[in-house]
Amino acid sequence: MGRPIESGASNERDDEPDAEPAAQEFEARELVVDAATHGQRLDKVLVLLAPEFSRSHLQQLVVQGHVSLDGVVAPVVSRKLRIGQRLRVTLVPTAQALAFRPQPMPLALVFEDEHLLVVDKPAGLVVHPAAGNWSGTLLNGLLAHHPGAALLPRAGIVHRLDKDTTGLMVVAKTLPAMTALVRALAAREVHRVYLALAHGAPPWRQLTIEAPMARDPVSRLRMAVVAGGKPARTDVECLVRGDEVCGLRCRLHTGRTHQIRVHLASRGHPLVGDALYGGRPGWGLTRQGLHAAHLAFAHPVTGIAMDFQCAPPPDLAAAWAAALPQ
């Protein structure tokens, strides 16, 4: 490999509060192309210089302008190197590596003490970093909200809501509280009730859907009712029927991914706005019509009964009023 040069820090800056950390926080590595690396592709030499990163990530660094030859940005990954050239790369971490960092954001706190908090999650907020959403999540906001979050698995998150589902979530602030809440959820001692706006006019007033769930064997983006999947139970009550839609109250007994969405769709009642499971937008609602309206549990430290309710956000409330008889 070429002769390494002592690493230096970049002096680039980005003062935007939500931008990636300033480049001076990142390690820079350099080498002078020698006879052994002369004629090799730029991306192949980068793998030799930074073997802890994948080749695809290093190629992205080239495209993003983090690699230079003799002080000039080298944007072509296939460029052949010449002996004597000075190669420099700023090792910006992968998106995954940057995911678990504090990002101040407004949190709609319904309750908070030294052990836990209850938040009213808005539509569009991802709860936990994942592919396509490595920043700007509730987890990032929790890390900024209180220092103890950094010491907890998943920053204290014990259950999740889908990105476009709104409503109440409980989050632990200490490890004892988190352990107790996880156990309470597993024992089905946490009362979780949702309001749902769904297609169709069901003939029933009350229904228990007990159908096992697993990843859809056809589409990995979806969940499905699958024989041999994990047990899943949802109690459903029809509160009001319209000509085309119905207003439902759903109580979770288990907490499988997309459970209410999948269970209702399996019975011919996909949520309004839920394109993934057959729903259609309407009445001004373009995201799935699902809201976590009621959350009740015993305080994990004091044992005091905690009971929270919150009204649906304006978009769901307006669609409910427009689609259903009052």
Question: How would you characterize this protein structure?
Answer:
The protein has 326 residues and is of the alpha+beta class. The chain has helices at residues 42-49, 55-63, 95-98, 138-145, 175-186, 259-266, 314-323; strands at residues 3-5, 28-32, 67-69, 72-73, 86-90, 109-112, 116-121, 166-172, 191-199, 206-210, 213-215, 223-225, 233-241, 245-252, 290-298, 305-309. Strands 6, 7, 8, 9, 10, 13, 14, 15 and 16 form a nine-stranded mixed sheet that branches. The protein has a five-stranded antiparallel sheet with strand order 1-2-5-3-4. Strands 11-12 form a two-stranded antiparallel sheet. Helix 1 crosses helix 2 (55-63). The radius of gyration is 25 Å and the shape is elongated. The model is unreliable at 3-24 (pLDDT under 50).
Instruction: Kindly report the average pLDDT value.
Output: 90
Which spans have pLDDT < 50 for at least 5 consecutive residues?
A: 3-24
Largest sheet: 9 strands, mixed
- The percentage of residues in β strands lies in 25-35%
